[in-house]
Amino acid sequence: xxxxxxxVSIHNVCWLILLFSLLSGKQVFSLEILTxxxxxxxxxxxxxxxxxxxxxxxxxxxxxxxxxxxxxxxVYNWGESGEMTTDGVNRISYVLNSRSANxxxxxxxxxxxxxxxxxxxxxxxxxxMIDKSIGRGVTPIVGTITPNSRPGGFDDLTRNVFNPKIISxxxxxxxxxxxxxxxxxxxWTSVPLHxxxxxxxxxxxxxxxxxxxxxxxxxxxxxxxxxxxxxxATSAIATGYVDPNGxxxxxxxxxxxxxEYGDSSEVNNIAAQNNGNIQxxxxxxxxxxxxxxxxxxxxxxxxxxxxxxxxxTVGTLPxxxxxLE
Length: 325
Known about the structure:
With 325 residues, the protein is α/β, with parallel strands linked by helices. Helices cover 36% and strands 25% of the residues. It has ten helices and 14 strands. The chain has helices at 4-24, 39-42, 58-68, 85-96, 110-115, 119-135, 154-172, 180-184, 203-217, 318-324; strands at residues 30-37, 72-79, 103-107, 139-143, 177-178, 222-229, 236-243, 249-256, 263-264, 268-270, 276-282, 290-299, 302-305, 309-312. The termini are far apart.
């Protein structure tokens, strides 16, 4: 059995291999992802069985997002219609034994809410499933319970009682949470995002679920463009802040004479757990010229851009510089 230390090490290695895959243009690593849950995981009414199949609704959407971002792998549907979390506790070992996997996505509890199960019992059962997954060396990610707008106050219980306890129990174990409820609820009834029964998502809803799983597994970096320093006639140092959000990240600056940019700086490679300020030299500039620049960062979750900022280069003729100022 893998220890938690070994578990974390394997997780970091996965990120490093994934980064190499993205940079080289070759998919050299394939993620195996198990999905555990009730009929919402199965994909009712579009699919009626899980049984470890690779078809499904949010499974398809998640894999689609992975492929779009250069991450290869398979997503297996182990949903069980009507399942409560107590059933999930009894079944998860079977799912974990089905194949070697890197992740297991656990989203259960909607039937507990409908069935009058206490929120404490649900949270305890989710905790057991988390612990069993970690004990097998599989990284769990927990999804919040999705909306239920049927009469009876189920949605209020889900939002105010059950989901906060699920989030708390996941946080206590250092496990990521995919807030499926928060992603679906704004358009749940207005768009709508359910297929007509106020409980099961429609295809648009499932696309949101798949995207939320992806964004939780592969969060994009957080960036902020800083000031320009040591400005000279043909060069300047651009500064910025990068939080890689747990994934090895490449950061650089785009710059040019307009906000169309056109030039890029050298790349700064940032380890998954490092965050902080970076400084990169911009070269090949023209004197007495206004330049636009912004920080840019890319990881397996995608590319993000910082704010556009400007600076003006100085010149070699002091009297002309005074006139320009």
